[in-house]
């Protein structure tokens, strides 16, 4: 493994218990993240993006279990690698990592804030715990962070309750709270989905600025490849709990190989397309249920390039097609042996 890796996820498999049977929700996930790098996890609803992110924080819902694999956190603060999968999810060690070293912006904007306390008090609480700061210092940090994320009049907002803020401002306050403990890794689960497009663009450029300024790594979860182009260094495309294509963002977006990635890109609105009056192409059909997984490639039921007796028989594994690019598709396999 690379020396400056911050996070390594190896062969991660997370299962749900269903009537005594263990069904995989995400499987064979391999990801690495270096210090200061931005990785985007992309895919349609239900493909396992949030579950993967939650497992890094050991915040999986009760029904879900990490069955195999390892998540290694190379803690810059503690100066040693920690096997996150080996920790007690309610123990002291993971609680120390959460918030102090890894912060998360949750998909549900309201779930990060309690409605009962002011924005300021909630940020101050994080600062006081993680920076061991007094009340006055914590308040100053809270105001500074709110200012830093572009909230006008932070001295007033610090006294406000979450419901008094607009959606965009609440999202910014959430980012301020997550950043206030100076994490080495920020996990942002669809941080812009609930926002209108102009605010979305502002929040994305803000995240880019903050990443540069604070030097933290980011796992950015989205279903929008347009957003990926703006923020990510590298990208992993997920489908039905598996990574089907991954690599350096530029390479994946300019030279997509998996029919699913190609379809996702065709579904992204672009100005040029509007001028040409070229219609967006929605992806045919729906993501199959986890309980009704197709035989063969997970994308076989929606793919327009199915190779008969091949894609509907076996599941292609992720193969390296260049230094910056991996894909799991029989159309592009390199070293895969054809099963008899
Ligand atoms: N607590 C749970 N119990 C059972 N199944 C669950 C639970 N949480 C998630 N799942 C299942 O795991 C799969 C992946 O869910 P996940 O929330 O990771 O999807 P996602 O990619 O984040 O989707 P979205 O874009 O809608 O947020 C889904 O099929 C979901 O139904
Ligand atoms: Mg999600």
Fold and architecture overview:
The protein starts with a strand and ends in a 13-residue tail after the last strand. It has an eight-stranded mixed beta sheet, sandwiched between helices. It has a four-stranded antiparallel beta sheet with strand order 2-1-4-5, with helices on one face. It is an alpha/beta fold. It is built from eleven helices and twelve strands. Helix 3 packs across helix 4 and helix 3 packs parallel to helix 6 (167-179). Among the domains are: 115-179, no CATH class; 259-332, no CATH class. Residues 16, 25, 43, 45-51, 61, 63-64, 107, 223, 290 line the site of adenosine-5'-triphosphate (ATP).
Oligomer designation = single chain
The major sheet is characterized as:
8 strands, mixed
Beta strand count:
12
The separation of the N and C termini measures 34 Å
Give the low-pLDDT segments: 336-340
From the spread of the alpha carbons, the general shape counts as globular
- The fraction of residues in strands falls at 15-25%
Largest sheet, spatial ordering of strands: 6-7-8-3-9-10-12-11
Rounded to the nearest angstrom, the radius of gyration is 21 Å
Order of helices and strands: EEEHEEHEHHHHEHEHEEHHHEE
Q: Class by helix and strand content?
A: alpha/beta
Bound molecules: adenosine-5'-triphosphate, magnesium ion
Report helical residue fraction.
25-40%
């Amino acid at each position: 493994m690379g020396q400056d890796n911050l996070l390594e996820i190896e062969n991660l498999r997370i299962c749900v218990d269903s009537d005594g049977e263990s069904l995989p929700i995400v499987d064979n996930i391999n990801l690495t993240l270096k210090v200061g790098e931005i990785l985007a996890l992309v895919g349609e609803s239900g493909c396992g993006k949030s579950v993967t992110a939650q497992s890094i924080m050991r915040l999986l819902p009760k029904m879900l279990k990490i069955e195999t694999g390892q998540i290694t956190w190379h803690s810059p603060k503690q100066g040693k690698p920690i096997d996150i999968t080996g920790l007690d999810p309610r123990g002291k060690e993971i609680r120390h990592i959460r918030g102090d070293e890894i912060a998360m912006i949750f998909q549900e904007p309201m779930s990060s804030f309690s409605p009962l306390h002011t924005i300021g008090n909630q940020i101050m609480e994080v600062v006081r715990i993680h920076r061991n700061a007094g009340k006055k210092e914590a308040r100053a940090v809270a105001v500074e962070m709110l200012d830093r994320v572009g909230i006008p009049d932070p001295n007033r907002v610090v006294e406000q309750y979450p419901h008094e803020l607009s959606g965009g401002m609440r999202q910014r306050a959430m980012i301020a709270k997550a950043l206030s403990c100076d994490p080495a890794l920020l996990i942002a689960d669809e941080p812009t989905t609930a926002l209108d497009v102009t605010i979305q663009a502002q929040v994305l450029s803000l995240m880019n600025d903050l990443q540069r300024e604070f030097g933290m790594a980011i796992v950015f979860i989205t279903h929008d490849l347009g957003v990926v182009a703006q923020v990510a260094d590298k990208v992993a495309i997920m489908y039905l709990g598996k990574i089907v294509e991954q690599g350096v963002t530029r390479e994946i977006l300019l030279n997509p190989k998996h029919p699913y990635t190609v379809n996702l890109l065709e579904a992204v609105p672009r100005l040029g397309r509007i001028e040409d009056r070229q219609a967006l192409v929605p992806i045919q059909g729906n993501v199959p249920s986890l309980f009704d997984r197709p035989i063969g490639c997970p994308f076989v039921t929606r793919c327009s390039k199915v190779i008969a007796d091949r894609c509907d028989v076996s599941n292609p594994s992720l193969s390296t097609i260049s230094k910056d690019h991996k894909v799991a598709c029989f159309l592009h396999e390199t070293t895969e042996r054809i099963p008899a």
